[in-house]
């Protein structure tokens, strides 16, 4: 038996069906008996048939099966147990069979992306309808309960769209959780490069790997009316939002500015699953006691900490003006440092040392601060405004400016014709008009440039 044949035979493993089979592409470690490995990883990633939902959509690289009801079945326990078992076998950069398979899919997708000619599309604005997938409908209605409509430039990078549009649009906390964007035509995933968010531990249950989202634009995924992509936000709680193109604006009528056009449903509380929030909304629909229960839990979440509790709060409340202000505020700030995401830690304090408070946290970022970056901590309060004894720790950019190819106008959100402000050299603007508007709105307070701009 020649060497190649011996190698193939040695790589034979029993599939979940119990049949010994030689994988067509991946290679197993000699001690990896493939226990808990999905049968799809015996296929060739370049020609395999991805798994689809009943509507023909492909998510998570097409890796996970669907049940009879058309729901994706991701066996998190099986995946976790397998990863825990094989982690010592695949060390020092050696990829697992699952990673080998997905890495090949990533390379294939990158070739397709690089071959695209998107110039015609990136100059257009797009009206996007974004709605939460697992929410109940409004009582006695077929209308989506939690949705937003926004106009954006197709040339906006995916990373900027998630960080400065999607996240503040739903009042999620920026740089707290990981995310991926699903290309539903082939299941390709795009996510934050170098992200150290806590929920990255669930990456295997999400698809094992993704393409960095800072090099690719919205129109690399959706370009025509009716095209849909999906954002999966927070790998632990797993919020899914479908994003559908409702209208394509001709290039001659496109401004590139990000404009909130409408929406419905109050912002979901942080740190709850969409299924739990859906149950709370149904509870609130029943009676006043259920409504009180829902509001109490909502106001106890981190993203409602700045608001006083109100029993009269409207759970269907949405404000175009407030949401536009939140998105504009995100654009007038540095990009989130994904390698130094927010971490929620216990705070051991009040150790007096010559009048100085000594603060320690259970965990610290393991990243070395670069020039222009700082580590910040923020206290966490409960619904009544009392300190909880917990702090949020995050790396922030104090003087490092965004990469000009991975940002947008600090005033309107356009990614076109960007030039750095010559005063602060931190913010980018697409025109002198936007610079003047930002100057009048408060940029003068943080900029050392002359007011004559």
From TrEMBL:
Keyword Zinc-finger in record: yes
GO molecular function: zinc ion binding
Pfam family, one: PRiA4_ORF3
Naturally occurring in which organism (per UniProt): Phlebiopsis gigantea (strain 11061_1 CR5-6) (White-rot fungus)
Record bears the keyword Zinc: yes
Superkingdom in the source lineage: Eukaryota
Gene3D superfamilies for the chain: 6.10.140.2220, MM3350-like
Domain MYND-type: 409-447
Keywords carried by this UniProt record: Metal-binding, Zinc, Zinc-finger
Name this polypeptide is given: MYND-type domain-containing protein
């Amino acid at each position: 038996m020649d060497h190649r044949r011996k190698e193939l035979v040695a790589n034979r493993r029993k599939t979940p069906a119990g049949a010994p089979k030689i994988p067509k592409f991946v290679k197993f470690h000699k001690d990896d008996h493939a226990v808990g490995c999905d049968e799809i990883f015996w296929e060739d990633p370049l020609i395999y048939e991805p798994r689809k939902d009943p509507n023909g959509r492909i998510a998570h690289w097409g890796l996970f099966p669907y049940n009879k009801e058309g729901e994706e079945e991701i066996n998190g326990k099986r995946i976790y147990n397998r990863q825990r078992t094989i982690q010592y076998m695949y060390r020092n950069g050696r990829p697992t069979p699952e990673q080998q398979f997905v890495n090949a899919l990533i390379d294939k997708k990158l070739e397709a992306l690089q071959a695209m000619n998107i110039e015609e599309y990136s100059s257009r604005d797009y009206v996007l309808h974004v709605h939460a997938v697992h929410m109940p409908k409004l009582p006695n209605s077929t209308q989506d309960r939690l949705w937003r409509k926004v106009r954006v430039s197709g040339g906006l990078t995916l990373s900027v769209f998630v960080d400065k549009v999607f996240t503040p649009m739903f009042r999620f906390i920026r740089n707290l959780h990981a995310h991926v964007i699903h290309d539903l035509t082939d299941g390709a995933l795009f996510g934050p490069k170098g992200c150290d968010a806590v929920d990255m531990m669930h990456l295997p249950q999400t698809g094992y790997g993704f393409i960095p989202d800072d090099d690719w634009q919205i129109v690399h995924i959706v370009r025509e009316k009716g095209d849909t992509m999906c954002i999966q936000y927070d790998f632990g709680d797993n919020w899914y939002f479908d994003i559908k193109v409702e209208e394509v604006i001709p290039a001659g009528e496109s401004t590139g500015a990000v404009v909130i056009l409408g929406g419905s449903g109050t912002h979901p509380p942080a740190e709850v699953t969409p299924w739990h929030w859906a149950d709370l909304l149904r509870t609130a629909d029943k009676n006043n006691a259920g409504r009180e229960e829902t509001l109490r839990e909502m106001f106890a979440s981190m993203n409602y900490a700045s608001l006083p509790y109100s029993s009269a709060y409207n759970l269907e409340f949405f404000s175009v003006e407030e949401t536009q202000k939140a998105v504009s505020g995100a654009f007038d700030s540095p990009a989130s440092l994904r390698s130094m995401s927010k971490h929620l830690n216990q705070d051991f304090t009040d150790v007096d040392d010559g009048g100085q408070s000594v603060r320690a946290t259970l965990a610290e970022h393991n990243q070395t601060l670069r020039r222009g970056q700082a580590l910040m901590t923020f206290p966490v309060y409960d619904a009544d405004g009392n300190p909880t004894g917990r702090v949020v720790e995050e790396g922030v950019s104090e003087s490092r400016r965004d990469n000009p190819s991975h940002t947008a106008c600090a005033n309107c959100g356009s990614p076109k014709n960007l030039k750095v402000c010559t005063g602060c050299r931190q913010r980018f603007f697409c025109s002198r008009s936007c610079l003047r508007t930002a100057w009048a709105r408060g940029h003068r307070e943080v900029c050392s440039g002359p007011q004559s701009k």
